[in-house]
Amino acid sequence: MYTYADDTTLIITAATETGLQTLAQSELHNLITYFHNNNLVPNPTKTQYTIYCPTRPTDNITLQINNTAITRTSKAKLLGITVQSNLKHHQTITNIIKKLQQVIHKFRYANKFLSTRSMKEQYYSLAYPHLIGAISLWGTEKSNSTRLQPLIRTQKKIIRLVAKRPPRTHTKPLMIDLKILGITDLYILRVCAEMHEHVYQRTLANRPEHNHNYISTAQVHEYPTRHSMQQHYYIPNRKERPLCTMQHYTRKYTAIWNQIPLEIRKTQTLTTFKKLLTEYLLEKQEKAEKQLVSDKVASLV
Fold first, then answer.
1. Which residues, including other chains, have CB under 8 Å from residue 202's CB and lie 6 or more apart?
2. For 251, which DSSP code?
3. Which of 36, 94, 233, 262 has its CB 3.0 to 4.6 Å from that of 254, i.e. a possible disulfide?
């Protein structure tokens, strides 16, 4: 159960539809009873439920509050993101783009009066928070991802406005000059920053418990290997029959962490770690752009 302000969210799992129906109605009844005992009044018309089943849809489940059927929806908002019934992220990205459209409208006027430096500050103040919000959930490191393309194009529009360039200007050189990371690199940065806090654990007050199970190679191999000595993280392989299994996001985050340089992974201070990783990703962007230009010149010759 997650509670935020006056919003309460129940997340219930079961192996069968019948079990889900029974458990969900029972837990909902317990919650309503708690509300009544504490002088709280639930509103059935504002209460909704969503069934998350990406493999096959089901229409056999109905829930009620005081004999009033509550509405079923295909998506639900939870702390800034929209969770779809098929567990996709297109709606979350669409909502981010809608918010960034307002930023674009402001930038079209602001860049006529502000310097490029001031516009860059406005970018980090108004646009950047929307781009990194829960990006470790809805983002990906794959630049050819279909769902990311609209957001990538939106970021490019903003970059052109920050740099005061025409609408069809190539943005990669602009991002290199401004030292601004693209969407996929922002995803890598945020994922590694989240992992860093669990690799180098610190005691933090009021921090939710993290249920990812990061397993180092040293925990799997009884003898020292090149990876275990270099703080790599073990990714299960069916042929190797791993001792432990990993969750979906744990597996993704681990693969990304393994790809960044060892010197950066050894940095124990989070602030320094993010600074070094940002510099590495910017340098990687620049090298990729230079290689692209070189390939184009070679093809012309």
1. none
2. H
3. 233
Q: Which two tokens stand for residue 12?
A: 């219930």
Q: Compare 244 and 178 and report the one with higher pLDDT.
A: 178
Pull the structure tokens for residue 81.
């993101």
| pLDDT greater than 70 at residue 156 | yes
Q: Where are the domains of the chain?
A: 2-78, 90-180, 189-204+212-277
Tokens in use for 259?
């790809």
> pTM for the whole thing?
0.81
* Total length of the chain: 301
CA atoms within 13 A on the CB side of 79: 10
Please report the DSSP string for 91-141 in residue order: HHHHHHHHHHHHHHHHHHHHTTTS-HHHHHHHIIIIIHHHHHTTHHHH--S
CB atoms within 10 A of CB 283: 11
- pLDDT band for position 229 (cuts 50, 70, 90): low
- DSSP class of residue 209? P
The helix or strand, by DSSP H or E, that contains position 198, with its residue range, turns out to be helix 183-199
pLDDT interval class at 86 (50, 70, 90): confident
Radius of gyration in angstroms for the set of CA atoms belonging to the chain, rounded to a whole number: 24
pLDDT tens per residue, range 19-32: 888 898 899 889 88
From the CB of residue 277, how many other CB atoms can be counted at a distance below 10 Å?
A: 22
More confident: 260 or 17: 260
Which are the contacts of 96, defined by CB distance < 8 A and separation ≥ 6? 130, 131, 133, 151
- Burial (CB < 10 A; 0-12, 13-18, 19+), residue 161, is buried
Question: 248: exposed, middle or buried (C-beta count within 10 Å: 0-12, 13-18, 19+)?
Answer: exposed
